[in-house]
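Thread: quick sanity check before group meeting

JM: Hey all, I'm pulling together slides for Thursday and realized we never actually wrote out the predicted structure for the chain we discussed last week. Dropping the sequence here so it's in one place. If anyone has concerns about the input, flag it before I start.
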Amino acid sequence: MHHTIQTRQLGPNGPIISPLGLGTWAIGGPFFAGPDLGFAQGAALGWGEVSDRESIDCLRFAADAGVNFFDSADLYGAGHSEEILGHAFKGMRDKVVIASKFGNTFAVKDKLMTGIDLSPAYIIKACEDSLIRLQTDWIDLYQVHVEDIDAAQIPQIIATLEGLCRAGKIRYYGWSTNSTKGNALFSKSERACALQFDMNVLHSAEQMLDSCEANQCIAIIRQPLAMGLLSGKYTRSKILSNSDIRKDPPVWLAYFDKNGADKAHLKRLTAIKEILTSHGRSLTQGALAWIWAKNPLCVPIPGFRTIDQVKENIAAMQYGALTGSQLTEIDKILATDNHK
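JM (edit): ok, ran it. Output follows.
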């Protein structure tokens, strides 16, 4: 039952990347919402305290084990996630493919998100700042980190990103959004090669996958484990820290509520658990196998805080994707479950 999953390519002439990447939101450590952002002021936007030493060990372990794609954002930990990546990959930059994001403003010292800025001057400055934190001369994939962009703004954003490509600061660019609006306009250039969006076995994102196919973009899958719910470790009563976004989640974070993991999602997970854990997979590995089975364009980027989590995620590649009939069976179970 060991089928190695094919590698992916970033852009028509871009680097070959592993079918699994790692997301580095959690290892940025705590950061919080400033005023007037649509969150409660001071709300946690990170995943709680982390050990930087362990984060660096995790990143190096993953790179040694054949994972070469690492996704960050300047906002994560108000710059801290990028700094950790910079430390981890110093001296081995050519062995890894680094993705980051821009568009949110933040106060580094106060660890606060402060707003949104997509002006050309800000994009250029954000890129320079990210390059310094990442200790690198280039970013392989630079992504807009704003859910909705006014269509009129898109040409100007693209022109700025094309300029950064010509200057050698970035190689390709993409957009992190769950919206299909504007994707065709954004993806016109061949250097726009990726869309990043939420998808997992409890949330199938068909329209975004269609958008990737239509625009010949790679699909970078965030929340592949439903913010950890699909690891099976979270129950109704599991206590989360005050600096963990899941403790008092914003509206868009559907998998948790104030009492822990969301009850309806846990019930749906129980219904499909047997299929996900087939052939000796863990629940996490089954959730990743579902994503690989959905579409060969998909690159899930699970987050991590410990070396054990990284090992479990990497081992998922050895098991390969679920079968087509398993996908169909899961669809059937979840469809009937929705109508209860």
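AS: nice. The chain has one domain: 10-338. DSSP finds ten helices and 15 strands in the chain.
JM: adding both to the slides.
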